[in-house]
Design a protein that fits this description.
By secondary structure, the chain is mainly beta. It folds into two domains: 122 residues, Carboxypeptidase-like, regulatory domain (Immunoglobulin-like, Sandwich), CATH 2.60.40.1120; 376 residues, Beta Barrel (Porin). The chain has seven helices and 27 strands. It has an 18-stranded antiparallel β-sheet that branches. A five-stranded antiparallel β-sheet has the order 5-2-1-9-7, covered by helices on one side. A hairpin with a 5-residue loop joins strand 3 and strand 4. The longest helix is centred in the first third of the chain and has 12 residues. It is globular and about 85 Å long.
Length: 546
């Protein structure tokens, strides 16, 4: 193996020092070259592998390292900025080119090297700078569901793509912009729920108590449109495949639903995202049009493991809408305002499912101020009659993101919603309307003689996040959830939930998320198969990225 590490220090924005060092094999990297990919300028290192480029202007550069007898490193984008430090790991391949498996293993070995704690300046963007650093946190911009974040660059590059880029067709893959990546996710928990079946319900995703779970094994194939530029229309897509226990939470009618709704399989397959993006920069300051199945628009949390602060999900997230199939537009009106408008077949329902589909609109508005330190997002996510059907929720959301300081080490995320289903069958009236399949529980109405009733619920959750270091962060979550008719959990009661979690990265490919969680129901006993009012859970998962 021949490895090279390039460390770039910006010196008052006028010059930069670069140093090339050998890999663990001790390969001789003297006389290696580093140059701009878009300019005929190179610098040859000395016998110790070090070199210096003088007179660089502030800006963005594409770099490539090369040496006779080795394959060139992939092109790497570097931002040279005054008073900041950028770190870039660049790997020279062997010639003749190694097998794919050797390239893949090499990419993992390089990726496991811990960073120095500085991710360097962000690439060029339009709008306010990223509100939090990533990693350790699961996102770099305040998340808006159902769309790319207009004006922000895409910087995904995992070990699998690094290995593919190093192959004979690597240049073709780079030109297409298509990437293939994913992760393996498993978890374990112990809880105070000991009744037969060992269920942690209504907790999710660690729903099986005192067990080890294969939560989700995920593969993405995607291309993201370039929304930083404003001179041409661009396109993108995502096809996702998920296998594991978590398919039980993403299942929608019309999408592989017989595994759960027909057979109640413990493990299964789903495709929670299958969509096409069209980015049109000429509409306002950029508009993304998304067509297909996508993540439901609101929420701090998301179905896919890396998009969350913690392993388990809040009750607020567990019992609202997960995915929608339709058309959604996201328009950037400026640095402050963003608007989303769309139409779908409803929550967890495909348009071709005639029985459950409902023409459903959505309208959402985001406002950012204090140069990105605060953001408020309000959303009517499911605008229809709200009449009882398969998870046909009408829901209204408000989310507030806040940074306590410019560095983002302390920040908070708060979300609340009010939702309901109307004309919901009364479970206490045996002569009433028949219940739908899983996902459409009945209601515990006020009076036994009622055939149906209005079934509302409301919830609020708050995350307080602290970044200890580049590889560690702490999560504190507190929430209140009132299932006022028992339509979501089967128990008519308010709940509170409190969590202390720790996120720890090993390099940039492995994430551990241990947590301690306590929850309590006030007017019923939903835990431990309907025998307890409280539950204490110690759990952790591990995500292995590829």
């Amino acid at each position: 193996m021949a490895g090279a590490q390039v460390v770039i220090h910006a010196l008052n924005g006028s010059s930069a020092d670069q140093t090339v060092t050998g890999g663990s094999s001790g390969a001789d990297l003297s006389s290696a070259k580093l140059g701009r990919a878009d300019a005929d300028r190179t610098v040859t290192s000395g016998s110790d592998g070090s070199f210096k480029i003088d007179g660089l202007k502030l800006g963005r550069y594409q770099l490539v390292a090369s040496k006779d007898g080795f394959a060139n490193s992939p092109e790497t984008t570097v931002q040279v900025a005054a008073g900041q430090t950028a770190e870039v790991d660049m790997t020279l391949g062997e010639l003749p080119k190694a097998s794919f498996m050797r390239r893949f293993i090499r990419a993992y070995k390089d990726d496991w090297k811990p960073s120095s704690g500085s991710s360097g300046p962000a690439p060029k963007f339009r709008g306010y700078s990223a509100p939090v650093t990533n990693p350790p946190f699961p996102f770099t911009v305040w998340p808006y569901g159902g769309s790319v974040t207009i004006g922000q660059p895409w910087t995904q590059a995992g070990p699998l793509m690094t290995a593919i880029w190093g192959g004979s067709n690597g240049d073709w893959w780079k030109k297409t912009g298509i990437q293939i990546y994913g992760w393996l996710n498993a978890g374990a928990n112990v809880s105070t729920s000991k009744q037969p079946g060992y269920s942690n319900f209504p907790e999710a995703y660690a729903v099986r108590g005192n067990s080890i779970e294969l939560d989700q094994e995920v593969l993405y194939i995607e291309r993201q449109p370039d929304t930083v530029q404003t001179d041409h229309i661009d396109w993108g897509f995502r096809v996702s495949g998920l296998y594991g226990l978590d398919y039980r939470f993403t299942t929608a009618t019309g999408w592989f639903d017989n595994q759960l709704l027909g057979k109640n399989q413990e493990m299964g397959f789903d495709m929670p995202m299958v969509y096409f993006d069209l980015y049109v920069p000429q509409i306002a300051q950029g508009t993304d049009i998304r067509v297909g199945r996508y993540i439901s628009l609101p929420d701090i949390e998301a179905q896919l493991a890396p998009n969350n602060y913690t392993y388990s999900h809040s009750l607020l997230y567990t019992f609202d809408c997960y995915t929608q199939t339709g058309v959604n537009t996201t328009t950037k009106l400026g640095n402050h305002w963003l608007v989303q408008l769309g139409v779908s077949a409803g929550c967890e329902t495909a348009p071709w499912n005639v029985k459950n589909r409902k023409l459903t609109g959505n309208a959402c508005l985001g406002y950012t101020w204090r140069t990105g330190l605060d953001n408020v997002y309000v959303c009517d996510n499911t605008l229809n009659d709200g009449r009882y059907a398969y998870n046909n929720l009408t829901a209204y959301y408000t989310t507030w993101y806040h940074k306590f300081s410019a560095d983002g080490k302390w920040h908070a995320s708060t979300e609340s919603w009010y939702q309901y289903e109307a004309h919901t069958p009364n479970v206490n009236n045996p002569a009433g309307v028949a219940l739908e399949v899983t996902g459409a529980n009945g209601a515990i109405c006020n009076h036994a003689y009622e055939v149906t009733c209005y079934a509302p619920e409301w919830a609020i959750v708050n995350y307080i996040e602290y970044q200890i270091s580049a590889h560690n962060y702490i999560s504190v979550r507190n929430e209140y959830f009132d299932d006022m008719r028992g339509q979501r959990t089967g128990f008519r009661t308010p709940y509170t939930e409190h969590l202390l979690g720790w996120g720890h990265w090993v390099g940039s490919t492995i994430l551990f998320r241990p947590e301690l969680r306590f929850e309590h129901a006030y007017n019923a006993s939903p835990y431990d198969n309907g025998t307890r009012r409280s539950q204490l859970t110690l759990a952790s998962d591990m995500i292995l990225f590829f």
